[in-house]
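User: Sequence in, structure out. Go.
Assistant: Echoing your sequence, followed by the structure tokens.
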Amino acid sequence: MKGLLIKDFLILKNQGKLLALALLVYSIIAFSSGNADMVTTMLFVVSVIMPVTAIAYDEKSRWERYALATALNRRDLVLSKYLFGGLCIVCGMLLGILFTLAAEKGSAAVLLPRLRMLVVAACVGVVVQSVNLPIVFHFGVEKGRIAMFLVIAGTAALQFYLGQVGIQVSGSLFSNMPLVLYVVIAAVSFGLSIVVSNLIYSKKEF
């Protein structure tokens, strides 16, 4: 498992340099404007797409065929991508916390809501990954991106329809949720997603 994680990080090493450069540019802009939201948003978006990018490299090089010819099994390959995605989100959250502490020189009353927002963003990132990875494992990266777009578009269309019939989905409902509930939802979705992905991957042919 450790070897699989190291492989994914090494594969994305070159992209990491570009992301570090982008982060530097965004950091300069954020520091000059006194707003850390831009950087933290970018960190979590990147964290969510990193596992999919790693899978894309695996598909391009047909890594799965080689891996399954060794002592590795399908569950190892699936779990490694979830662990990789989870580590990316944790790293993004830690970097976001450090950046927030550096950029926001306010009191605890200012910092605590922002730190809470980072934890919420991490939980949302976990849920997005939990939805995205089974789709990618089933359809592949290219078709999976299209399927994920359709899921997002369908969700937006449903919200629009509910608004048309008088059912409003208020953002305050989610912003007022207890933090522990976000963590529970993220943990449950992560666990269920692993089960679904294992079922999909067990029947996949390479």
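User: And one key feature?
Assistant: The chain is about 85% helix and 0% strand.
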